[in-house]
Amino acid sequence: MNQDQLKQAVAQAAVDHILPRLDSKSIVGVGTGSTANFFIDALAKHKMDFDGAVASSEATAARLKGHGIPVYDLNSTAELEFYVDGADESDERLHLIKGGGAALTREKIVAAVAKTFICIADASKLVPVLGNFPLPVEVIPMARSHVARELVKLGGDPVYREGVLTDNGNVILDVHNLSITDPVKLEADINAIVGVVTNGLFAARPADLLLLGTAEGVKTLKR
Ligand code: 5RP
Fold first, then answer.
1. Which of 81, 89, 92, 107 is the catalytic position?
2. Is 58 among the residues known to form the active site?
């Protein structure tokens, strides 16, 4: 199976997991990226079995609407049972790096609200230690140089993602060469820098379930 087929397999596995637990009032939190897109396409076949979705990005909202799935504002959503999203890296404890698609802040907000965060990823995303993938940090534009200097003090090499503005109107610094041995602490330390909106470590609130697409089939890892 190629990488896209593995992504499709985990997207379908996520639909199979949540479908029996949805009813006509359910609202599903939906992530961003190519794996999340496969999930949206698979979920759309069952759009009569739930109410609608909350989107973690404008791109996801557009794809959901394109399928005729109602998209709700998170502020008008009382309860979110599931959030389903991809990741750039996961360790065995389901700490994640996310934000390759620049949607990390809204992803983190929807993940925080959801009771269960299901991460869907192909096997290449599971790593022993996080940090090979450069850590995305969303930054208020006027704070970019200040934040970059502070990230260097934390041992990283920040690179400005040129030409990218997030859905919130901010910029992204991708931090290379971080050794992320304590993801919970690093997530908090980076978020404490003035001017940082949030960073792509999902460690304080990791995934609850990782559906991993492998050549031998979809494996389930639990926290
Ligand atoms: C977007 C994300 C994505 O979940 C992450 O980049 C993985 O993307 P893909 O499913 O395309 O590999 O965090 O901000």
1. 107
2. no
Shortest-distance atom of ligand 1 to CA 34 = 11
State the fold for domain 135-199: Alpha-Beta Plaits (3.30.70)
Four-way CATH pick for 3-127+204-222: 2.170.130.10, 3.40.50.170, 3.40.50.1360, 3.40.50.10490: 3.40.50.1360
**Using a 6 Å cutoff on CB, does residue 85 contact ligand 1?**
yes
The model carries a pTM of 0.97
Q: Which residues of 49-65 are buried (b: 16+ CB within 10 A; e: fewer)?
A: ebbbbbbbbebbbebbe
How far, in Å, CA of 84 to CA of 10, rounded? Answer: 11
Quick one: tokens of 197?
């909106």
Give pLDDT tens digits for 83-96.
999 999 999 999 99
